[in-house]
Automatic annotation (TrEMBL):
InterPro entries cross-referenced by the UniProt entry: Clx_II_MBL, Glyoxalase_II_hydrolase, HAGH_C, Hydroxyacylglutathione_Hdrlase, Metallo-B-lactamas, RibonucZ/Hydroxyglut_hydro
Keyword Hydrolase carried by entry: yes
Gene3D superfamilies (UniProt xref): Ribonuclease Z/Hydroxyacylglutathione hydrolase-like
Enzyme nomenclature, EC number: 3.1.2.6
Annotated cofactor note: Binds 2 Zn(2+) ions per subunit.
Pfam family, one: HAGH_C
Protein name: Hydroxyacylglutathione hydrolase
Species assigned in the record: Aliidiomarina sanyensis
GO molecular function, a single term: hydroxyacylglutathione hydrolase activity
Pathway where this protein functions: Secondary metabolite metabolism; methylglyoxal degradation; (R)-lactate from methylglyoxal: step 2/2
The UniProt record lists the keyword Kinase: no
SUPFAM superfamilies the UniProt entry points to: Metallo-hydrolase/oxidoreductase
Binding site for Zn(2+) 2: 62-63, 133, 171
Length: 259
């Protein structure tokens, strides 16, 4: 299986999945969150691929803006959440739905994860997670439509996946996220080590994704709201005690939003 990041806009990644089969033109592929058609179409031509399906995690324009143009060139099914904001979706999905693509090589289960948006879903299979803007490397998405308890519950659904799960999120935010994480937990050596690795990758012009869920458990403050070090930092910032992990998560999210 080959999973390639196509860069779009300032920091988006559009994931293109194929079986890396050789020997014929127009091998099938699956496109995840194509916010911009131009770089996708260029990659499809370069690699001689044709879309078998498009997967959408939520309705934001930087994840859906390229769908119409791609469909003009390559009519194919569009899988996504129930949302009147994404009329292009032909196959509407909800929690627990399963899809099989690429002749059975790609089998994915749908996880509902509202918080960033209310319609947000993720796709998981074979220790690969395509999670849009819910979970980032070192961070999580802004809370545009959901509420803290909802978003925290969504993150917990992802947190219990296998530790080796590769996290294919949609933005190159890793360095900035880890710099914030280091402010929350300045004594966390895992954060410092990971930040150094990430900054070197970016200096070399390399992509920092996918991340691995085990690294998120060790370094991502939004998955660590139950840790005393994160709670203490949040309480210091808020200047009052926080009774639950949800309150800690909400405080860390507010802190990050204002950083």
């Amino acid at each position: 299986m080959r999973i390639h990041p196509v860069a779009a806009f300032q920091d988006n990644y559009i994931w293109i999945i194929d079986t890396a089969a050789k020997g014929s033109d127009h091998e099938p592929c699956v496109i995840v969150d194509p916010g911009d058609a131009e770089p996708v179409l260029a990659y499809l031509e370069q690699e001689r691929l044709r879309p078998e399906a498009i997967l959408l995690t939520h309705h934001h324009w930087d994840h859906t803006g390229g769908v119409n143009s791609i469909l003009e060139h390559f009519p194919c099914p569009v899988y996504g959440p129930y949302s009147d904001k994404i009329p292009q979706v032909s196959h509407r999905l909800t929690e627990g739905d399963r899809i099989s693509l690429l002749a059975g090589a790609l089998n994915l289960e749908v996880i509902a994860c509202p918080g960033h948006t209310l319609d947000h879903i993720a796709f998981y299979g074979d220790e690969r997670l395509f999670c849009g803007d819910t979970l980032f490397a070192g961070g999580c998405g802004r809370m545009f439509e959901g509420h803290p308890a909802q978003f925290w519950e969504s993150l917990q659904k992802l947190a219990v996946l296998p530790e080796k799960t590769k996290v294919y999120c949609a933005h190159e935010y890793t360095a900035a996220n880890l710099r914030f994480a280091a402010r929350v937990e300045p004594n966390n050596e895992a954060i410092q080590a990971r930040l150094a690795q990430v900054e070197q990758l970016r200096a070399d012009g390399q992509v920092t994704l996918p991340s691995v869920l085990a690294d998120e458990h060790a370094t991502n403050p939004f998955l660590r709201a139950e840790k005393s070090s994160v709670r203490n930092a949040a309480e210091t910032k808020e200047k009052h005690p926080l009774a639950t992990p949800t309150e800690v998560f909400a405080a860390i999210r507010r802190w990050k939003d204002s950083a």
